[in-house]
Design goal:
By secondary structure, the chain is mainly α. The chain contains six helices and no strands.
Length: 111
C-alpha cells in the first residue's frame, strides 16, 4: 500500500479505503454483508484452530442452542479473546480491500 497507510486504514471506513463511497445504500448494504460474512468466517477459522475436536463440538452445540452468554463463557474458559480476533480480522480485511482498490486504480490509470 504505497499511497494508503495504516493510519488511513484505521481511521477510514471500509467504503472510504476502498473508494466505494459512491455506491447506493443498497449496494453498500450488500458490500457490508459480504464483508461481514468474510470476516466472521475468518474469525471462526481462527477460533477453530485454537480448539480440539471436543471443544469444537461443544462450541457448535452452544451456538446452535443460541445461548450467547454460554458461548462467551466458553471463549473465556478456553482463553479465546474473540473481540481481539474479530478486530484483527476486520483490520486485515480493510487493509486487503484498500490494497486491492489501489491496485485496481493503478491498473485503470495505466490504461
Amino acid at each position: 500500500m504505497s499511497n494508503i497507510g495504516l493510519e488511513d486504514v484505521l481511521q477510514k471506513s471500509l467504503f472510504e479505503v476502498s473508494e466505494l463511497e459512491g455506491l447506493s445504500e443498497e449496494e453498500k448494504a450488500d458490500v457490508f454483508q459480504k464483508a461481514y460474512e468474510t470476516v466472521m468466517n475468518r474469525v471462526m477459522l481462527r477460533v477453530a484452530d485454537q480448539l480440539d475436536e471436543q471443544g469444537l463440538d461443544k462450541l457448535k452445540e452452544l451456538i446452535n442452542a443460541g445461548d450467547a452468554k454460554a458461548v462467551q463463557a466458553f471463549f473465556e474458559e478456553n482463553g479465546i479473546d474473540i473481540d481481539q480476533i474479530a478486530t484483527t480480522e476486520s483490520l486485515a480485511y480493510k487493509v486487503e480491500m484498500a490494497s486491492i482498490s489501489e491496485t485496481l486504480r493503478g491498473q485503470h490509470q495505466s490504461n
